[in-house]
Design brief:
The protein has 345 residues and is an alpha/beta fold. The chain has twelve helices and 15 strands. It has two domains: 179 residues, Quinone Oxidoreductase, Chain A, domain 1 (Alpha-Beta Complex); 136 residues, Rossmann fold, CATH 3.40.50.720.
């Protein structure tokens, strides 16, 4: 089968690879219909993820059809259309039992990192009974593509903020995770969403779609002043940092009101500074972490009810044969792309 592998630092390569096989009774083999390129994939090929293995098939965000199942899988059947969780988790260890699935002692971020991922024609999914979610008939593969990673990340960011009815939530970054965070925050009861980004096109997009009520471009506007104007001089009730820029963490705590929650779901390439003397007295709560994708079934239901949509995220669709070109374009961020869908079959 065809598979896209991390060849060397900065390089990927489409090669022929052996078909995956069932290795454990809780495995499934999925025929990949659509996958996507993630910024995390770029972090891997540029050498920023120490546990990633060169030669690995990349990709962790996908949908497809089950073609083979291990004998212990009871909640899925061959032929099921499924959405994949980007996290591999056993559901049995101490962390899983507490709901902290991205800290699973037997899993974690494995697909496309330490084991072969989904940017291929077929993929083996460990712990498939926890990591795959059946897609309702009313939902297309395109609708469900981002449920197990980008949408779950956005939901996680909003969930961390403990949103109350009527809150004002600031979201830093109008990329895919930020867009999902805005929608999820509204579903959770936020009254006003303030969106920040240095890309004016993305700002106008989230405003036109109704995801954000107020948009701010830090390159041309005074962020703190505008946030205070919009919050009776208090600051945002919660801040979701989904950008991971050089100074976006600093912006996050500066625009938060005293006693607010700052949720950091961005992935940084450099260490960030926590200037405790400057923030003394704000009594802030910081919550950080990778995606904790425990709500895939709920998110699929929200999509089915038209309360959330990720369709806007697909900027272009490429075939698996074109994936090397797609990587180049995605890294260059040409044409204001958000996400690329890769059609494997």
């Amino acid at each position: 089968m065809k598979a896209l592998v991390w060849d060397s630092i900065g390089k990927v390569k489409l090669i022929d690879k052996d078909m995956p096989k069932i290795e454990h009774p809780r495995d499934a083999i999925v025929k990949v219909t659509l996958s996507s390129i993630c910024t995390s994939d770029l972090h891997i090929i540029n050498g920023y993820v120490p546990k990633a293995k060169q030669g690995i098939t990349l990709g962790h965000e996908f949908v497809g059809e089950i073609v083979s199942l291990g004998e212990d899988i009871k909640n899925l059947q061959i032929g099921d259309r499924v959405s994949a969780n980007c996290e591999t988790f056993c559901g049995e260890c101490w962390f899983c039992q507490k709901g902290y699935i991205n800290n699973c002692q037997n899993g974690g971020w494995k697909l496309g990192c330490s084991i072969d991922g989904c940017q291929a024609e077929y993929v083996r999914v460990p712990f498939a009974d926890t990591g795959l979610t059946k897609i309702p008939e009313s939902i297309s593969y395109e609708n469900a593509l981002f449920v197990g990673d980008i949408l779950s990340s956005g939901y996680f960011g909003a969930e961390l903020c403990e949103i109350k009815q009527g809150d004002t939530i600031a979201v830093i970054g109008c990329g895919p995770v930020g867009i999902c965070s805005m929608q999820c925050a509204k579903v959770m009861g936020a009254e006003k969403i303030i969106a920040l980004d240095i890309d004016q096109t993305r700002l106008e997009l989230v405003k036109s779609k109704g995801y954000a009520d107020i948009i701010i471009n830090p390159l041309t506007q005074n962020v703190e002043n505008i946030v205070k104007e919009q919050t009776s001089n208090r600051g945002a009730d919660g801040v979701i940092e989904a950008a991971g820029g050089k100074d976006t963490f600093q912006t996050a705590w500066q625009i938060a009101r005293p006693n607010a929650i700052v949720a950091v779901v961005a992935m940084y390439e450099e260490n960030q500074v926590l200037p405790l003397p400057q923030m003394y007295g704000k009594n802030l709560i910081f919550k950080t972490g990778g995606v904790d994708a425990t709500h895939c079934k709920e998110l699929l239901n929200l999509i089915a009810q038209n309360k959330i949509s990720t369709d806007i995220l697909i900027s272009e669709t490429y075939s698996l044969n074109e994936i090397e070109k797609a990587y180049e374009l995605f890294e260059e961020k040409n044409n204001n792309c958000l996400k690329f869908a890769i059609k494997s079959s």
